[in-house]
């Protein structure tokens, strides 16, 4: 495949080599690296066109990572997909990005950094408090000594110097008290930031970050207790049409209504989070995939029976339904494989007509 670039895009060496090829002369020496880059670009372009993928930054990064070998996991995923004869389409690439096998590691790294910051603030607060206490004790002792020395007139200069020292100590003590208060405020802000980082700002449900952490801890606990754990991806049907017809603000209200409907069913037996966009994810403690399917199907029926209207225009939204994919986390030793299975089941639910629940 020949790639065409706009004028001025190619380097001087590229233009010289192209001119040489056109004239039938051998290529310039020292171009192996250029040839390798050109070959990789052509492979990327062929791959994009062969699989009818959009030319986006995310797609190019994924394809380049897989074809170049820079991302071995992606390379393996591409190879496995092609060997199985399954399509490498946009939805599958989006699924890879959504599932994000490195996401948990990044969350763990962020948690570690926040823990270190909190520990540093705690140690600073302890040091400031100790220094303030010690300074206060010294200030009291110096004050007693000054009073005891106040009678003799021949030590007036010493008294003046001591009083100046006492005043300076009082200033330091006040500064330390301010530092201690500011540190306490920083620690409070950090605690609030931890909580806020786990919340979806639109629906106020736990967000993907909170779900990732909960999934890992719940899977460990379920395996330790030899109990089932299942999850479900729930995706609103035809949500883009709602946004296009009624506007994004109305679409946001539909998402909030969906979140509220899921919360109505939420209890100690499962955990609800917004995974992103119009997609929600649920964890079912102690339920296998069949029991989880029954619960989600009941929720689906209840949601489909609701009649929602655009409060701004009075126009009805029509039936708001969702499709869902179920997977049992404890069926596989790899916790994250459940995400892939649930997502594939959700894809089948969409293909089979939407407004249904499919088990993966």
Poorly predicted runs are 1-29
Helical percentage: 55-70%
- By CATH, the topology of the largest domain is Alpha-Beta Plaits
Output mean pLDDT: 77
Topology pattern, helix = H, strand = E: HHHHHHHHEHHEEHEEEHE
Please state the second-level CATH architecture of the largest domain.
2-Layer Sandwich
Distance between the terminal alpha carbons, to the nearest Å?
39 Å
CATH top level of the largest domain is: Alpha Beta
Inertia-based shape = extended
Pairing-aware structural class of the strands and helices? Answer: alpha+beta
Biggest sheet strand order reads 2-3-1-6-7
Give the CATH H-level superfamily of the largest domain: Reverse transcriptase/Diguanylate cyclase domain
Alpha plus pi helix count:
12
Number of strands: 7
- The share of residues in extended strands comes to 5-15%
**Rg measurement, Å:** 32 Å
The tally of domains stands at 3
Biggest β-sheet description = 5 strands, mixed
């Amino acid at each position: 495949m020949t790639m065409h670039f706009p004028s001025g895009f190619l380097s001087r060496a590229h233009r010289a080599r192209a001119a040489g090829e056109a004239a039938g002369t051998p290529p310039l020496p020292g171009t192996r690296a250029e040839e390798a880059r050109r070959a990789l670009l052509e492979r990327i372009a062929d791959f994009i066109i062969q699989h009818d993928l959009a030319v986006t930054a995310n797609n190019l990064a994924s394809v380049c990572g897989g074809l170049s070998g820079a991302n071995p996991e992606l390379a393996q995923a591409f190879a496995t997909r092609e060997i199985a004869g399954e399509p490498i389409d946009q939805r599958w690439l989006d699924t890879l990005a959504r599932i994000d096998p490195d996401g948990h590691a990044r969350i763990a790294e962020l948690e570690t950094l926040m823990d270190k910051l909190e520990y540093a603030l705690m140690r600073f607060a302890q040091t400031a408090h100790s220094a303030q206490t010690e300074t206060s004790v010294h200030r009291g002792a110096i004050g007693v000594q000054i009073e005891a020395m106040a009678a003799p007139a021949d030590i007036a200069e010493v008294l003046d110097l001591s009083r100046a020292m006492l005043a300076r100590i009082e200033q330091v003590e006040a500064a330390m008290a301010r530092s201690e208060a500011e540190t306490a405020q920083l620690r409070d802000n950090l605690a609030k930031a931890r909580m806020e980082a786990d919340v979806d700002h639109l629906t106020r449900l736990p967000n993907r970050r909170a779900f990732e952490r909960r999934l890992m801890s719940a899977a460990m606990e379920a395996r330790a207790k030899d109990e089932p754990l299942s999850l479900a991806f729930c995706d609103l049907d035809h949500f883009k049409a709602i946004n296009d017809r009624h506007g994004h603000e109305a679409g946001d209200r539909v998402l909030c209504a969906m979140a509220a409907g899921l919360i109505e069913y939420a209890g100690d037996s499962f955990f609800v989070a917004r995974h992103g966009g119009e997609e929600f994810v649920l964890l079912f403690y102690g339920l296998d995939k069949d029991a989880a399917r029954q619960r989600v199907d009941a929720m689906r029926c209840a949601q489909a029976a609701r009649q929602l209207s655009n409060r701004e225009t009075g126009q009805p939204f029509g039936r708001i339904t969702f499709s869902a994919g179920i997977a049992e986390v404890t069926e596989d030793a790899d916790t994250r494989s459940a995400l892939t299975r649930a997502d594939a089941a959700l894809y089948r639910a969409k293909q089979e007509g939407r407004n249904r629940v499919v088990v993966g």
